[in-house]
Amino acid sequence: QVHLMQSGAEVKKPGASVRVSCKAAGYTFTGFYIHWVRQAPGQGLEWMGWINPKSGGTNFAQKFQARFTMTRDTSISTAYMELNRLRSDDTAVYYCSRELLSHLPYGMDVWGQGTTVTVSS
Amino acid sequence: DIQMTQSPSSLSASVGDRVTITCRASQNINMILNWYQQKPGKAPKLLIYAASSLQSGVPSRFSGSGSGTDFTLTISSLQPEDSATYYCQQTYGTPYTFGQGTKLEIK
């Protein structure tokens, strides 16, 4: 069964960093881009970026470029996102998701369960 | 960035009603438009991709149409389990922006 399993909730202080993992199962990890999407409490969805697990290439939304890193470890079929210099408005649920069709821009059909990141002093 | 504007922001309808949600892009995105359903506390679920293609396993009462800048999601006969928030998303160009969402309530 195809699924993505994310790491657990995090509580961080402003200025700290957070890393969230996303472990893929049930398909060839290197065959599909992984996207990161976040959702602040009571708000809509915000696309952050994607990583090509095969090459490691990435594409970020400009607003996150200075603080946001996506990496992967193909040996364990896991993608990571790291957000640095956290602010209170980074408090959100962070989702990883897999593109529907390999290397085609047709949305994301498999989603992780979400990781709540709370930034509070 | 491509801006996506959904309307209405919220609506209330009865079981069996036909419901339409619209999404407008700030520029031509051809048919590179997706629709998601999200229920509280859950991850989004892909309903429609490429404007009108029904994702596997999604009930046929859901349909999508449109191209260019104007798109619609239609639920032909509303069911109680369709209570959710619906989002459009363009994947024509990065950043892959979402609409602000439409909250659908069952009367």
Could you describe the 3D structure shown?
The complex is a heterodimer of chains A (121) and B (107). By secondary structure, chain A is mostly beta strands. The N and C termini of chain A lie far apart (40 Å). Chain A has no helices and eleven strands. Chain A is globular, with a radius of gyration of 14 Å. The mean pLDDT of chain A is 96. Chain B contains no helices and ten strands. Chain B is mainly β. The relative contact order of chain B is 0.35. Classes of the chains: A mainly beta (121), B mainly beta (107). The interface between A and B is medium-sized, with 22 and 25 residues.
Task: Write the SSE topology.
The complex is a heterodimer of chains A (121) and B (107).
Chain A: E1 3-6, E2 10-12, E3 18-25, E4 34-39, E5 45-51, E6 58-60, E7 68-73, E8 78-83, E9 92-99, E10 108-111, E11 115-119
Parallel strand pairs in A: 2-11
Antiparallel strand pairs in A: 1-3, 3-8, 4-5, 4-9, 5-6, 7-8, 9-10, 9-11
Chain B: E1 4-7, E2 10-13, E3 19-25, E4 33-38, E5 45-49, E6 53-54, E7 62-67, E8 70-75, E9 84-90, E10 102-106
